[in-house]
Amino acid sequence: MPAVKETIETVESIAEYEHGFVTEIEMDMAPKGLNTDIVRFISAKKEEPQWMLDWRLRAFERWQTMQEPSWAMVRYPAIDFQDAYYYAAPKAKVELNSLDELDPEILATYQKLGIPLREQEVLAGVRGAPRIAVDAVFDSVSVATTFREELAKSGVIFCSMSEAVREHPELVQAYLGSVVPLSDNFYATLNSAVFSDGTFVYIPPGVRCPMELSTYFRINAAETGQFERTLIIADKGSYVSYLEGCTAPKRDENQLHAAVVELVALEDAEIKYSTVQNWYPGDKNGLGGIYNFVTKRADCRGARSKVSWTQVETGSAVTWKYPSCILRGEESQGEFYSIAITNGHQQADTGTKMIHLGANTRSRIVSKGISAGRSNNTYRGQVSAHAKAKGARNFTQCDSLLIGDQCGAHTIPYVEAKTPYATFEHEATTTRLSEDQLFYCRQRGLPTEDAVALLVNGFVREVLQELPMEFAVEAQKLVAISLEGSVG
Amino acid sequence: MVLDTPTLSPGEAMVLAGLPMTEAGDAARDSLKASGLPNRRVEAFKWTDLRAALSEPVADPDGSAGLIPACLQEALVLDFAPDGFGLEGDKDEGLIIETEHSLPMDGAGPVAVLAAGRAPRAVVLRVTSPQTRPIVLRRHPGAPMRLRIELADKAELTLIDMGLAAAGLATGLIEADVGAGARLIRYSVQRGGAQAIDLTHTSVEVANGGSYAAVSLMFGAKLARAETTVCLAGSTARCDLSGAYLLAGQSHADMTIRVVHRAPGSETREVFKGAVQDRARGVFQGKILVERAAQQTDARQNHHALMLSEGAEIDVKPELEIYADDVQCAHGNTIGALDDQALFYMRQRGIDAVTARALLVEAFVTEVFDAMTDPGLRDWFVGLARDWLAEVRA
Amino acid sequence: MLKIHNLHVDVGGTPIIKGLTLEVPAGEVHAIMGPNGAGKSTLSYALTGRDGYEVTQGTATLNGEDLVSLAPEERAAKGLFLSFQYPLEIPGVPTLTFLRTALNAQRKARGEGEVSVPDFMKLSRDVAKKLGVTQDMLKRPLNVGFSGGEKKRMEIYQMALLDPRFMILDETDSGLDIDALKVVSEGVNALRGPDKAMLVITHYQRLLDHIKPDRVHVLAGGRIVDSGGPDLALALEKGGYDRYKDAA
């Protein structure tokens, strides 16, 4: 079967990870290890108020009593939590007055990654192109946030988490930990103790955020964990679309990324959250790569609120991630669209939870998993409807595609129905890339690797369509790159 | 890390005290002492908490094994009672019945360990040629059943297991080896009262070209769990599983199924339906595992359930674990209420709501019995479902 | 144009084509007829290079260039097009995206420049009009939800757009009613030309009423057992294939 073999070989020669470079820069690091002193150190570095420090210390105390979860279908050597740095920031002036004072190495890094940090660069782009405000997080700190003044005109707060703690304590105190409680799970609790930076967004009532907001996460320093914390609050009747991107250098050791993202949607508010996750996946022998252990949850608190998660997961050595929606408000809606691609020795255990608490709540899950090489790709999802969730509806579609005979594709849905007035539908399929379709494409002149890219893009199209345009183009390319050696 | 030895509940202590002095009994004793019965924090028992159900001592066995239907009058009956095992009826050629020591059952989980441990001896059925006379396993309340079946190449056997316990802990363990080209067919009816706990583990291994087909009907009990593990070890083997659960009152029924495809070219079809009302709880966990060598596997699983009233609960975990690429695997699951439009349509034609509802539920659930080739048995199953519907609407 | 000499093809280790020799010169249309299981589809797959159709002996050349050693897409770039008996459905891939990708891949392989999006759109519209292919069909994922007739029309549409030099039509008439057959045949006839050639594979004569062949060959038992003019097809329609039973 030469064509299949060829496909597999093509797929096995994993494309060079193009974001794997290292930025040489002087860093301000906390000592290695994890204890209350480190927690205090991080809090002090960020000039945090006492309440924030107390919160961190409570989380740390709690974390010491917790055990790392083991139920996911991922295998990795035990992590020595004492053998990592928990704070790494580029040495810089305390206050930056303009981007010109930012270390040129960092500016160059973002330029290389194609992330516009200079507003004029964005403006100088194609006329009519959508503008995107960016918060750039470099290791443990936010290094730049663009378009803030313009956003402020409509009352939108878009800043780093550190700044929000200082400048908007009333909002942070009211919402931080209200979706993902301090004691939620091992990694989230660890994050609560040592989170360094991240993005804070507040959209005031009735405001439609005038541009896409985005955060670009970059892990640069060696042996350093990244623990960002993102909090987005969409007040009554508001709308925001938020994008998240991530990359890291190639390093032989595994690095931990344990983020927490909390979304709060009040009455009639809508949040669209898109992620293109492209952390370094490790080399072809499975050496190195990011451990991506992330807790993302949305609380659809208000009536008719809506949260839509879209994720394209192509990177990381190990992914453990379940962006979820608590559908509390009546008629609130949750959506989860996911493309997860694993290749080489990658392992992904990802999916969602849709917890229907309110009446007439609706959720929709579309998951497309693609396994290649020696990887394992698991969809794990929970849908539950509680006694008061009359009229709740869920539709779930999970499709898995296998490329090669050394990988695994797994589907593990949990469905809990506690009311007769809810409707659940779940469909799942697992197949391999069709040889007939491949031959058809090749007969029309497409080389094998183009044919594979075309077919895989067809397989994931339903999810790609959910991404904002410019992200979709990027994601489509990434799909091809993740699976093929010579394309892209 | 040192695990704390759990303090056993009065119910667990009673189970422990009742274990016989056999090797399997020792294994069950060790397992109970070390970790107790599994509770909801154990993934496979997430929705069926054995420890909670056995926190208090189990009521003394009460009830009967149920009446054998007319269509099975010719069958050979194996009687399993708390105090031993008996035989009724004629035995044909090609069937050997013996008993043997109850040996420990490793790696099959706590229900299998317990069921093996409680049985003083195991009954062995050796089948060397196709059997036309079915065998009924009549399970009396509180009885521990352990059965080992060996089907030689091309042999065939039909098993029917049934019980009607009002109270007591009944356990069952069936281990079957289905030889090349052989066929094992099994029909089971589980009915238990509010004080009864029914735990059954079935483990079947199928060789080249062999098949296992099972149809089950569960009405639940205080807690009833039927575990089935089918390993399609040979190529072009086949597994057809279907079943229905009808639950009312406080009853709890759990169907936990695991089908493993180990060799190329095998096929699995699973169809399960359920209807649950009052404060009853239905649990369906179905896993299909396709190992790397099992190319050209074709496996499909469907589960569809109706929630008939508030307070009821249905928990479902269909699962695909696939390591071979040239496969066709799928599962589908739906849970919801009865179709309002169909109900209205029937009422518009003059059928009262209660009757219409019963007819719709019956049609929905009994579809899974279509696979039964014996019309007598099929009518028996449909009749049991219909009786239940008549009873619960009163 | 197409020259096949003593071709032997195995499928899964079983010989299906056993020494087939055939020549289709430029400008001609040849028909291959034969009973079920004669190896008609095997021939079309072997010529286009499908996996599992192994050429064990003999040669096949297009304009003097060897086909057998080439990958399917390389043969396509040389101008070889197969209209499938059962066109594939490809979910999620819009027809136009597919065609533009295919056209540009072929052009690239031939060292030609890419066709720009506006030029391609114009081309696709012009061809669509001639074949009664609607814009709606072009926007939908390739062949998904198409009727049997629509799928066949889409094959001919692709053929017109990709402008191949040698066309193999595998049972193009199957699943078509008489009106659809006319539309498809007109489309095919419009693609005939002095520098092009076709091989029409069919079980029944009726397609040859609409696409008039220059030569008719009978394939049975993996070999050409008879050849003649268009009249041979009519004779076969009357007499059936029985008389070739022993020839194989």
From TrEMBL, chain A:
It comes from the Bacteria. Residues 217-459 form the SUF system FeS cluster assembly SufBD core domain. GO terms for biological process: iron-sulfur cluster assembly. Residues 149-208 form the SUF system FeS cluster assembly SufBD N-terminal domain. Belongs to the iron-sulfur cluster assembly SufBD family. NCBIfam families: PRK11814.1 (NF008773), sufB (TIGR01980). This is FeS cluster assembly protein SufB. It comes from Candidatus Phycosocius bacilliformis.
From TrEMBL, chain B:
InterPro entries: Fe-S_cluster_assembly_SufBD, SUF_FeS_clus_asmbl_SufBD_core, SUF_FeS_clus_asmbl_SufBD_sf, SUF_FeS_clus_asmbl_SufD. Residues 145-364 form the SUF system FeS cluster assembly SufBD core domain. It comes from the Bacteria. GO terms for biological process: iron-sulfur cluster assembly. SUPFAM superfamilies: Stabilizer of iron transporter SufD. This is FeS cluster assembly protein SufD. It comes from Candidatus Phycosocius bacilliformis. The lineage of its organism: Bacteria, Pseudomonadati, Pseudomonadota, Alphaproteobacteria, Caulobacterales. The gene is sufD.
From TrEMBL, chain C:
Keywords: ATP-binding, Nucleotide-binding. One of its GO terms (molecular function) is ATP hydrolysis activity. Pfam families: ABC_tran. PROSITE patterns: ABC_TRANSPORTER_2. InterPro entries: AAA+_ATPase (IPR003593), ABC_transporter-like_ATP-bd (IPR003439), FeS-cluster_ATPase_SufC (IPR010230), P-loop_NTPase (IPR027417). Residues 2-246 form the ABC transporter domain. PANTHER family: ABC TRANSPORTER I FAMILY MEMBER 6, CHLOROPLASTIC. Belongs to the ABC transporter superfamily. Ycf16 family. This is Putative ATP-dependent transporter SufC. It comes from Candidatus Phycosocius bacilliformis. The gene is sufC.
